[in-house]
Amino acid sequence: MSDRACIRGCTVKDVHFAECDDFGKTGDVTCRGCVPREARDGALICERCYRRLRSLLEDSGDLVGHLRSLADPTKAGAIDRSNPSARPELPAPVAADLVDASDHIVRNLRQWALHLQGYGEYVAAGLEAGASAAEAFEDASACAEVILLALDDFVNDSHQIEPLCEAVLDRAPAGAEPDMWTLADVAARWRLADTRASWAPAPCPDCDRMTVRIHPARGRVPERYVCQMGQTVPTEDCGWEANALDDGGLWSELYATEPADVRAHDPRWMTLADAARLAGFTQGTVRRWAEKELVKTDAGRYWREDVEAVAAERKGKAA
């Protein structure tokens, strides 16, 4: 595991430094967490940022196609066919934010695709005015695929991963219109509805709530698992997500809709965040204990008694 912190400043929810005013408190606190979140192995961003970046790029074609279909002015045209001499109504004006958002997203995706293919000296154009929703989808998807294929090659390069995250993950302040639309802004404003999504039969490994939605695989995009805690309780956004290939297929097994072995919940199995909080060590440290087989794990959970025993031993040696 990496000992570096996410360069985007991500922190672990409800985990505080000793000097924090909310250290040791529960309930009504002002700090949501001040301990930095560890960077992903071989990367400068944390696992959560990496997975969110990946999923937004995977969805970029659908998002741009959706924007284009909403902005199609021909759908607003109405002609009175009972009166051939009547003038057709002019199409309704298209909202500027739809035009700006699709233009910004496609321009960014094209520029990144050019850069990664060695044509960075060219300036990418935005979405053509007459492009259909299908054409916009194909264009954005093709550019995103170039980025996704190269992502692991530059995720440890601050000169590339920082601007990409800014173009994809950054959000405009609440209530403000973005100066430059990002994929995260678009996804929040014009959320894609997946009618095939279903609720997972197991809780989220981060917030321990039954709020994970399973989004079926589509094309080259594997099945995805996304915690919806932020939509269920807006003040308690979780943000966890993964796909069927992450962590050696762990999540596809955990969230199988027809699990082969359904067992009653044992409270001694803890989430990584809870185990780290109990032990008084970082999540990375607890994870390393598990890798050394000092702590038993099962489907992303950690055995409480092992965590307590190892933590006591480590603290005893440090005394």
Provide the β-strand percentage band: 5-15%
DSSP helical segment count: 10
List the domain count as a whole number. Answer: 4
Distance between the termini: 26 Å
User: Based on helices, strands and strand pairing, what is the structural class?
Assistant: alpha+beta
Low-confidence stretches: 76-82
Please list the strands of the largest sheet in the order they lie side by side. Answer: 1-2-3-4
Portion of residues within helices: 25-40%
* Rg over CA atoms: 23 Å
What integer is the average pLDDT?
83
- The gross shape turns out to be elongated
Mind describing the biggest β-sheet?
Answer: 4 strands, antiparallel
Descriptive notes:
The chain has 319 residues and is an alpha+beta fold. It has four domains: 1-39, no CATH class; 47-76 and 93-192; 195-262, no CATH class; 269-318, no CATH class. It contains ten helices and seven strands. It has helices at residues 47-70, 96-116, 133-154, 158-168, 183-189, 229-232, 250-254, 272-279, 283-291, 304-318; strands at 198-199, 212-215, 224-227, 241-243, 269-270, 297-298, 301-303. The strands form two sheets. It has a four-stranded antiparallel sheet. A hairpin with a 2-residue loop joins strand 6 and strand 7. Helix 1 runs antiparallel to helix 3 (133-154) and helix 8 (272-279) runs parallel beside helix 10 (304-318). The longest helix is centred in the N-terminal third of the chain and has 24 residues, at 47-70. The protein is elongated, with a radius of gyration of 23 Å. The two termini are 26 Å apart.
